[in-house]
Amino acid sequence: MPACGPEGHETEPALSTHSIAQVRVASEVGFGNAVVVSDDEAVPGPGDEDASAAPGDVDPVGRFRFWFDDQRWEWSAEIWHLFGYEPGEKVPTTELMLSHNHPDDRAAVADALAAAVRDHGAFGSRHRVIDTAGVHHQVLVVADGMFDATGAVVGTEGYFIDLTASLRRNRREILEETLPELVSARADIEQAKGVLILAYGLTPDQAFATLRWRSQETNVKLRVLAARLVAAATALRGGPTALRIQMDHIVLSLHEYLDPPTQDRSHGQ
């Protein structure tokens, strides 16, 4: 016996939680009427069947159903919690859903939903949600058509995926791993430019152009050549003429040099 929802409508069995792994295929295949409106942490919810995922590795995913004719919604507990409510605390409506969209995203999300209703397509979106506590969430909506017993499209059903934790992890990885490497590369290049400026009386732009020329000629990354040049320059000895001859040789043969030992720049470098 189906349960009754708001206003006496019969509802399908209770919506269940799905892990990000279970809906990833849907997001990769794509979905109709999708809109990406912005690029601005979490553990699996109860009922998540992806037991192989460690806590914190799975983004919260809630399921929804939306009927076109009467604009009726059903939300799983995860979607209620995303907005900051307990399940059933309010009547799930389009107005309530849109009220929790970031103001800059609201119109685009409303347009995407209206297009789904008009075209009997799937509702998809990437937008920001602001919950009742004022916390911002990055949300991806992936969905497909919902069909009745005759095969007619009667609505759209899919998932709200809270990407906030993944984006936060990605930013942390950039800050902890990628950014230090970029800073280190920049330091190597700046030091190498200094060596060339001193040796040849070049301007900073000319020194960089020289490094880039050698990188392109030898098919060796600019950062690698710069590090080799700095390491080789520390071993130069002799007067101005001897230094110039040695420097000419180094610049023209850097691609044959071994890479210097990696140094930890986080300690006084």
UniProtKB/TrEMBL annotation:
Known EC number: 2.7.13.3
Molecular functions (GO terms) = protein histidine kinase activity; RNA binding
**Annotated catalysed reactions:** ATP + protein L-histidine = ADP + protein N-phospho-L-histidine
Keywords, alphabetical: Kinase, Phosphoprotein, Transferase
**Which stretches make up the PAS domain?**
75-120
What is the uppermost EC class here?
transferase
SUPFAM superfamilies listed in its UniProt record: PYP-like sensor domain (PAS domain) (SSF55785)
Keyword Transmembrane present in the record's keywords: the answer is no
Which intervals hold domain ANTAR?
Answer: 169-230
InterPro entries the record matches = ANTAR, PAS, PAS-like_dom_sf, PAS_fold_3, Sensor_kinase/Photoreceptor, WH-like_DNA-bd_sf
Q: Which Pfam families match?
A: ANTAR (PF03861), PAS_3 (PF08447)
The protein's name is histidine kinase
Native organism is Nocardia brasiliensis (strain ATCC 700358 / HUJEG-1)
